[in-house]
Amino acid sequence: MLAIDSGIMGPKDRNMHQKLVEQNVNGIRMRALIAGSGPPLLLVHGFPLSHKMWLPQIEYFQSRHTVIAPDLRGFGESDISSGIVTMEQHARDLNSLLKELNIEDPVVFCGLSMGGYIAWEFWKHFADQLHALILCDTRADADSEEGVNNRLKMADLVLRHGPEAISTAMIPNLISESSQQKQPHISENLIAMIEAADSEGIAASQKGMAARSDYSNQIENIRIPTLFIVGSDDRLTPPEIMLRMSSQVPGSKYFEVGKVGHMAPMEAPEAVNREIDHFLTSSNF
């Protein structure tokens, strides 16, 4: 394992230890930010971003948890795979990463959007490694035919013209109008993450999402604490979709954040952190 000083310290505690680590995972070099100590909290980013989308959560939870925030295969500083990267492959990468990091306790898996698609696969294949699930702005069903076609078109566009061809156009679907107007730095940070991603990495996961499995009739079998979080103005996975999923999962919690879009943890970090904190406390974690 190669450890790299991240130089990222939260203002609340400048002495809180954070490090970037690199691990050989399933034939690739995978990078993750590790922060704090305590029960493990795994933060899985959305498409086509990196672990940096979780910085407010890392800072908040590192005082009580071992926070693990990886760059998924093809994103951030992790290695790229061309062709197609399935959601199951991402889940297997994460399971292998946890083993390489010697994380023995079951984790709370917190995933946003594509991170939620990966969560279903992790639950299917590695249920014994899960203490709880937090699903942010995501869905359990597979894409429609139109959705599949749109993903494949985006993959082709990025391969031909690079991530700059999609970065700015994605913003209205990622954050609310209110966030665009009142928090312009969020748009800037998102565009920077998207444009830093590799074209092949973007295309490979986009194709993987297009081919993902439908879990909408399986999530009723989840028997661990589960929290659903959604922005009230989310265009991609609107509240009615998230509320329906919550009604399917026995005993799950549902939290809707007002005036934010698909990136609720970035747009309203204080509200999201409080709700996650309350959920973790009530789940004895």
From TrEMBL:
Keywords annotated in UniProt: Hydrolase
Query: Is this entry keyworded Hydrolase?
Result: yes
What is the enzyme's class at the highest EC level? hydrolase
The record, for InterPro entries, names:
AB_hydrolase_1, AB_hydrolase_fold, AB_hydrolase_sf, Epox_hydrolase-like
Recorded hits in Gene3D superfamilies, A to Z, give:
alpha/beta hydrolase
Q: Which residues form the AB hydrolase-1 domain?
A: 39-269
- State the superkingdom: Bacteria
GO MF term list: hydrolase activity
Q: State if Hydrolase is listed as a keyword.
A: yes
Entry EC no(s): 3.-.-.-
- State what protein this is by name: AB hydrolase superfamily protein YdjP
Q: What organism does this protein naturally occur in?
A: Gimesia maris
Q: What is the lineage of its organism?
A: Bacteria, Pseudomonadati, Planctomycetota, Planctomycetia, Planctomycetales
Task: Report the gene name.
Answer: ydjP
